[in-house]
């Protein structure tokens, strides 16, 4: 295993922001992107954290990522909004999309926002959490270039295609956030950067043989979560987000580890329901809290200290992080090299 170093988030974040600003983003946009990546790291989602910065920056420098900060509204009717992100950075595009969805749902009760031509949006759960914190239930899904075969197949057909659901609760939102593969491309890249092997059942090599080697997995295929059910869920997500947005799906998509001179053109869909249009929010919260308590107070198997509802582990990891990010040497080296290329001062914690 490759040793990692602990880096203060309040030092790493501004440095990462400076890289994006040097690449052409405004100061505000650079900070927002960096904050999203740092939050992922602090929440235990390092596969979607600063590890991804180099891929984003490579596309940015190559002209394959727009520095725009708002997507174009293609159409907007009662309950349906279609946006074209125009190769925007994904966090910025998704932030705007969920904000539009929350605003429209306040008046209409329910709205769907379909987005095309976006780049990697990071942790999908962060967007449904934003909605849940404002009294909305939210469902989010997105697609990525195929890495998963159909059961019994030997060809990549669908991506890791995440699904997230956010539900308001008094102590903090209930947040389901899952890929439809057993593992994710980001986690495989993270394992490769950290010199780790993969769990059994995550991937195959290019010939379809099971593998725990990250390099072989990147050249091979990722296996579905839950067998045929995971493939089926990924397939319908791909169609929903791609077809409703008039965006890319299947082989038309681009991925982080492909040619960084080209945009990713991914698609995603947010469905936002304002709880107060269905029932008084306090009543909803009371029952959501009851459901959370039911899980926490349930009988535990021997050796189990606590039972968790969806999203609680990430929230707990964030709270216990102490504001420190685990940075793999390979990631630190890539950031330092990019800083030299962009003329950004390299902080001491990367040089040490």
Characteristic key phrases:
352 residues, globular, oxidoreductase, 12 strands, Mal/L-sulf/L-lact_DH-like_NADP
What does this molecule look like?
The structure is a single chain. This protein is α+β, with helices and mostly antiparallel strands and 352 residues long. It is 40% helix and 18% strand. It contains twelve helices and twelve strands. It has helices at 9-22, 27-42, 53-62, 90-108, 125-132, 185-193, 214-219, 228-244, 281-296, 312-320, 329-342, 348-351, and strands at 5-8, 72-77, 80-88, 110-118, 136-142, 163-167, 174-178, 203-204, 210-211, 221-222, 266-274, 324-327. The strands form three sheets. Strands 2-3-4-11-5-6-7 form a seven-stranded mixed β-sheet, with helices on both faces. The chain has a three-stranded antiparallel β-sheet with strand order 9-8-10. β2 (72-77) and β3 form a beta hairpin. It starts with a strand and ends with a helix.
Shape: globular
Question: Mean pLDDT, as a whole number?
Answer: 94
Rounded to the nearest angstrom, the distance between the terminal CA atoms is 19 Å
Radius of gyration: 20 Å
Q: Spatial order of the strands in the main sheet?
A: 2-3-4-11-5-6-7
> How many runs of DSSP E, i.e. beta strands?
12
Topology overview:
Blueprint: E1 5-8, H1 9-22, H2 27-42, H3 53-62, E2 72-77, E3 80-88, H4 90-108, E4 110-118, H5 125-132, E5 136-142, E6 163-167, E7 174-178, H6 185-193, E8 203-204, E9 210-211, H7 214-219, E10 221-222, H8 228-244, E11 266-274, H9 281-296, H10 312-320, E12 324-327, H11 329-342, H12 348-351
Parallel strand pairs: 3-4
Antiparallel strand pairs: 1-12, 2-3, 4-11, 5-6, 5-11, 6-7, 8-9, 8-10
Helix pairs in contact: 1-2, 4-5
């Amino acid at each position: 295993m490759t040793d990692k170093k602990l880096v203060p988030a309040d030092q790493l974040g501004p440095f990462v922001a400076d890289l994006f600003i040097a690449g052409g983003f405004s100061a505000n946009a650079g900070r927002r992107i960096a904050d999203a990546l740092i939050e992922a790291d602090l929440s235990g989602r390092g596969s979607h954290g600063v590890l991804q910065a180099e891929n984003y920056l490579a596309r940015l420098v190559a002209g394959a990522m727009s520095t725009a900060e708002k997507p174009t509204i293609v159409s907007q009717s009662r309950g349906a909004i279609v946006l074209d992100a125009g190769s925007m950075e994904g966090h910025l595009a998704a932030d705007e999309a969920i904000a539009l969805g929350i605003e429209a749902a306040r008046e209409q009760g329910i709205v769907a926002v379909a987005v095309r031509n976006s780049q990697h949006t990071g942790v999908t759960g962060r967007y449904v959490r934003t909605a849940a914190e404002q009294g909305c239930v939210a469902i989010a899904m997105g697609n990525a270039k195929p890495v998963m075969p159909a059961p019994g197949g030997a060809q990549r057909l669908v991506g890791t295609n995440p699904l997230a659901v956010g539900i308001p609760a008094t102590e903090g939102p209930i947040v389901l956030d899952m890929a439809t593969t057993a593992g994710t491309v980001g986690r495989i890249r993270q394992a490769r950067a950290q010199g780790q092997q993969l769990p059994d059942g995550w991937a195959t090599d290019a010939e379809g043989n099971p593998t725990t080697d990250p390099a072989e997995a990147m050249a091979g295929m990722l296996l579905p979560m839950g067998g045929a059910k995971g493939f089926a869920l990924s397939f319908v997500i791909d169609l929903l987000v791609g077809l409703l947005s008039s965006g890319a799906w299947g082989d038309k998509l681009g991925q982080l580890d492909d040619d960084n001179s080209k945009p990713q053109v991914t698609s995603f869909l947010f469905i936002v329901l304002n709880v107060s249009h269905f029932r008084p929010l306090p009543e909803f919260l009371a029952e959501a809290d009851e459901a959370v308590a039911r899980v926490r107070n349930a009988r535990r198997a021997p050796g189990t200290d606590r039972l968790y509802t969806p999203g609680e582990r990430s929230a707990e990891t964030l709270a216990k992080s102490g504001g420190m990010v685990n940075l793999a040497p390979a990631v630190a080296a890539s950031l330092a090299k990019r800083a030299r290329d962009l003329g950004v001062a390299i902080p001491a914690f990367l040089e040490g």
